[in-house]
Protein: NUCB2 protein
Organism: Chionis minor
Amino acid sequence: KGDGHVEGEKVENPDTGLYYDEYLRQVIDVLETDKHFREKLQTADIEEIKSGKLSRELDLVSHHVRTRLDELKRQEVARLRMLIKAKMDSVQDTGIDHQALLKQFEHLNHQNPDTFEPKDLDMLIKAVSARYK
């Protein structure tokens, strides 16, 4: 009573300003559905998160969570490809290096576009951390 929050109520977070903000939020939401990972996240300090130690816990989440994360990553890769195509269409330059364009997206492992792995979580954390240094 009096705290204004109802158990299970979603709290709206302000936009981070990151071009992958929606992807970041979706990954966090899915990870928090796994009880073990949620407990690890709540007890981890910022250095454990930034160092990648928390990313290794991804191997322990449920199959359902991993499947949902894989789906989110494929959607994000498709979104980035659409952005690259739009950029290419606007420039009309035929000498564009697609891999070089993908490398500018440091929040996911573009060499493995189909599955969400601990490396993806680590890259996402590092990209966010670098943005807020």
Q: What stands out?
A: Helices lie at 21-31, 35-43, 46-51, 63-91, 98-103, 118-131.
